[in-house]
Structures are given as C-alpha cells and as structure tokens.
Amino acid sequence: MKTVIHWFRRDLRVRDNVALSEAARRAEQVIPVFIFEAASRTGTDVGAARLAFLLQSVESLRQELAELGHALVIRCGPAEEILPKLAKEAGAQAVFANKRHEPCAQHRDERITSALLNAGVGFELFKDAVVWEETEILTQAGNPYTVFTPYSKAWKSKPIPSPRPKLTIRHPASRIPHLRSDTLPATPDEVGHPLLQKIPPGGELVALELLRRFMAGPVYGYGMSRNFPALDGGSNLSPHLRAGTIGIRTILAGLNKAKGKAANAEAAKSCETFLNELIWREFYTQVLHNFPRVAQGAFRPEYDRLQWSENHDHFAAWCAGRTGYPIVDGAMRCLNATGTMHNRLRMIVAMFLTKDLLLSWQWGERYFMQQLVDGDLAANNGGWQWSAGTGTDAAPYFRIFNPVSQAEKFDPGGDFARRWVPELAGFPGDLIHQPWKNLPLLEKSKYPPRIVLHEEQRLKCLALFKAVKKI
Ligand SMILES: Cc1cc2nc3c(=O)[nH]c(=O)nc-3n(C[C@H](O)[C@H](O)[C@H](O)COP(=O)(O)OP(=O)(O)OC[C@H]3O[C@@H](n4cnc5c(N)ncnc54)[C@H](O)[C@@H]3O)c2cc1C
After folding, report:
1. What is the mean pLDDT of residues 69-95?
2. Model confidence over 231-258: pLDDT tens digits?
3. Ligand 1 environment, Cβ below 6 A
4. Quick one: average pLDDT of 222-239?
5. Res 178: pLDDT
6. Which of 29, 199, 366, 448 registers the highest number of CB atoms within 10 A of its CB?
7. Which atom of ligand 1 is nearest the CA belonging to 349?
8. Ligand 1: distance of its center to the CA of 276 in Å?
C-alpha cells in the first residue's frame, strides 16, 4: 500500500505498537492521526484527571513523532465523519488501528468500518492492548473462563510474544501531503483545575522510566510491599496501560529479564505475583468480551435484584471522604486529589460502599470511572463486582471487610491515614483508625463521627444478600 493512516487511540506510543508497526511495514508512508472525540461517544466517563493525563500523553507522542520526522495530525469531532474525509485528503488506502475492547467502542468501530468502506477505504484492527484476547483462551469444554486461577494457568502455558519494533525515522524523500491539525482542548491545569499538580505525568518516556526503575529493584519486594498503601509498592503503570503509553509486551520482556536476575526464591516469587496482576487485567478484559452484560449489571443476574439503599447523603459522604472511617476517607480524598488509589484501598472503599453503606456497586463504579486516571471499564467493573460479591471470581457475599481491621493490618502506623486526613494529627497511633474511641478528642478535631456502625451494617448486608438467595 502506498499510504496508510495510523489512528492512535489507546496506544499513544511509537514503540511496541502492533498496528503502527504493521502500517510501517506494509505502507510506503504512514500518516499518524489522533482524533479527539467527546467521551460519551466511546462510552466512558472521562474526568479531569484522565483527560489531563491523556492530553499530556498526546503532546508527548507528538514530540516523539516529530523527532522521527512524522507530523501528528490532530482532529476534533466524530471519528466516523473525520476518517473518510481525512483518508481522501491524504490519499490513503486504509486506516490501521489497535482494537479497543469496550462494547461501546466496538460498536463505534463497526460504524467506522461501514463509513470507510463506503469511501473505498479499508479499516484494519489489530490485537495490541493484551497478549491474549476474546476467545483465545478457553476451557477444555470451549467456554470462557470465569475463575482466575485456571485462566492464569492456561495463560502461562502459552508463549509470550516479543515487543514490536519502534517506528523508524521517516525517509526524507517520502512526500507527505500537508494536512491541517486542530488544536486540542485546554488541559485542566490551563483552566486552573486544582488536580493537575498531583496527577501522575503522562507520556511514553515517563512510562518506560517507571518500568525501568520498577524492574531494577521494587519488583523483587512487590509480593509484600504491594499491600501497604503507605509504601507505594506497585509499578504505577496502570494509567500508562490504560492510555497505551506502554506496550504489554514491553512490560513482560522487562519482567522476564528481571526474573532471570532474581537473587532468591522470594524475589522470583514476587516477579510471579506481578505477572499474576497483569494476567488479572487480561482476565477481566476477556470477561467483558465474553459477558458484555457485566457493563450493565451483575455477572450473576440474581444479584440485580438486590435492594440497595438509595441514601444520597451516605453516597456524598463516601465520595467526599467524610464517612468517619479514616482509612476509607483517606483513600477517597487521595482519589479526589490525585486521580489514583492504591489497590488495597480500592477493595476497602468498594466493600465499604456496598457492604457497609449498602449502596449499589454501580454508583461506585461510575464515580471511580470519572475520577481515576487509570479508569478502565473491564478492570474497574471486575474490581467492583469482585468487591460487591456479584461478579465472576468474586469474594463471596459473606466475606465482608472490616474497615478497622483492614486499616490496622495494612496501614499499621496510620501513616497513610494521617497523610490524607489531617484532622487526625492529634490522635495517638493506637486510635488512629478508631478515633471515635476518644470522643472529646474527636469533637475537638472536627473530623466527622461514623455515619454507620460496621457491625450493624454487616448484619443488614447479610440479610440483603440472603433475601435474594431465597427468591
Ligand atoms: C474496585 C476496584 C476498581 C479498580 N479499577 C481499576 C481501573 O479502573 N483500572 C485499572 O487499571 N485497575 C483497576 N483496579 C485494579 C488495581 O487496583 C489497579 O490496577 C492498581 O491499583 C494499579 O496500580 P499499579 O499500576 O501500581 O498496579 P501493579 O500492582 O503494579 O500491577 C501491575 C498492573 O497490573 C494490572 N492490575 C493489577 N491489579 C489488577 C486487578 N485487580 N485487576 C485488573 N488489572 C490489574 C494493572 O494494569 C496494573 O498496572 C481496580 C481494583 C478494584 C478493587
């Protein structure tokens, strides 16, 4: 082919990018394009934090491409209208892109296929975001897996592909038509949004540096440190996997190398634990593909009949971090301020919303999607349904986290709680997670009293689930 448009979507990088490397291999010239669309069109809520991260990553991509002699074409508007016109302007025979896995984005791709076909332009989609997708890993009976452990075993039995080569420098002699570029919307920091100072920086080079640093040491202690919010023991790669500023094959190659250098069995086991987390991501992606109904309701349909509370005051208190439970409040305030939340805390606040406040997991799922920099439909939905006990490989409904014992176990010195709940500064270490045990100090601190009592709510929650089981 003479000219191919590479349409960047959740793959904002020039290295290890399947569709981009295919375009470079099969076409004489590649036109890199980014289309900024209203979020509602792809079915995901985009809050200020994710938008800022995305725009920063696009800018970094533009610079990387410019260094390689390629000019990123930016257009704003509906992709199915823009792409056929742009293909005509550029004289392109095809548009290449990497697959997206959200049902709503896939329906849009069907519309784009017809729009391009009508214009005589091909549209090719490539598997890129995950190693194994859709129905590539099935049980012996030919069904999708709904339990993680056997899925991960099957996943590990397959070969892991190597990273794709980086886009090369454009041949100076290749003539590229001049194509207009639109200006991207203002980033939230440009309009004075308070978040941006605190959200993680975007871009491919940032992601590669995070990976390098993680694999140089922290990965060997990951098995232990990943559970403690105050330690920051994770890779922090999730926003990059979400925006595609790093390729999964690159991460796996880095992990494989690190595993080869592990000094002892414990360090090698930590590498394996990290691999399992990456497989969880693929597990939930295939769940979403094979059971798209999870985007609308419980994986176990009987749980759509749960009579959740509709207490909007409780929901507002949870969102704002004013429930009176320091670990929950610290986690929510951290989310609101940075667009990120530690995995252990996500489980604690999700359990608290569903099992203590008895509010629908879907309220929490939506709020997370709006706030998180790494908000991803498959992983978020999987995490919420796991916590609520309504999902595939879920915690059983009677396993209810106690927010105090979780806090005492995973934030033993209260370092995390103190960082995000400054009202608790005057509380001694043994009361940091139960400030209500010293009422005069609590009143002085201006920190709110508990909005519910865990032991009472736990019983109500069990009754709620049992009522559904009886029907
Ligand atoms: C209620 C709830 C909601 C969640 N929502 C999201 C979300 O919207 N987007 C998201 O990427 N993750 C989500 N997770 C999973 C997990 O919390 C984050 O992936 C993790 O905290 C990201 O930090 P990290 O990059 O340091 O992860 P690491 O611990 O370094 O793990 C490496 C990578 O593995 C993947 N991963 C790790 N744990 C999980 C998991 N349980 N499920 C799926 N993938 C995982 C992520 O891509 C992550 O970057 C959610 C979990 C829960 C309980």
Report:
1. 96
2. 989 999 999 999 999 999 999 999 999 9
3. 226, 234-238, 241-242, 277-278, 280-281, 284, 343, 346-347, 350, 368, 372, 374-376, 379-380, 382-384, 387
4. 96
5. 84
6. 199
7. 1
8. 11
48-52, 96-100, 140-144, 204-208: the lowest-pLDDT one: 48-52
Please report, rounded to a whole number, the percentage of residues in the chain having pLDDT higher than 90. Answer: 87
Identify the pLDDT of residue 367: 97
Q: How far is the CA of 374 from the centre of ligand 1 (A)?
A: 8
For the chain, list the domains and their CATH numbers: 3-129 (3.40.50.620), 204-290 (1.25.40.80), 301-465 (1.10.579.10)
Output the DSSP codes for 68-100: TT-PPEEEES-HHHHHHHHHHHHT-SEEEEE--
Closest CA to 318 of 359, 362, 377: 359
pLDDT of 395 reads 81
Ranked by mean pLDDT, which of 50-59, 354-363, 387-396 comes out on top? 354-363
Ligand 1 atom nearest the C-alpha of 241 is 47
**Which strands form 73-76's sheet, in the order they lie side by side?**
73-76, 29-36, 3-8, 94-98, 122-126
Residue 375 sits at the vertex; the CA angle it makes with 373 and 377, to the nearest 5 degrees, is 165
Ligand 1 pocket, mutate which of 131, 155, 274, 343 (most atoms under 8 A from CB)? 343
Structure tokens at 145: 């897996």
pLDDT digits (tens, 9 = 90+) for 257-268: 999 999 999 999
CA distance 397 to 399: 5
CA 380 to ligand 1 centroid distance, Å: 8
| Among 259, 174, 176, residue whose Cα is nearest residue 222 | 259
Annotated catalytic sites, by residue?
Answer: 277, 280, 308, 343, 361, 384
Contact 48, 185 (CB under 8 A): no
Q: pLDDT confidence of 42, banded at 50, 70, 90? A: very low
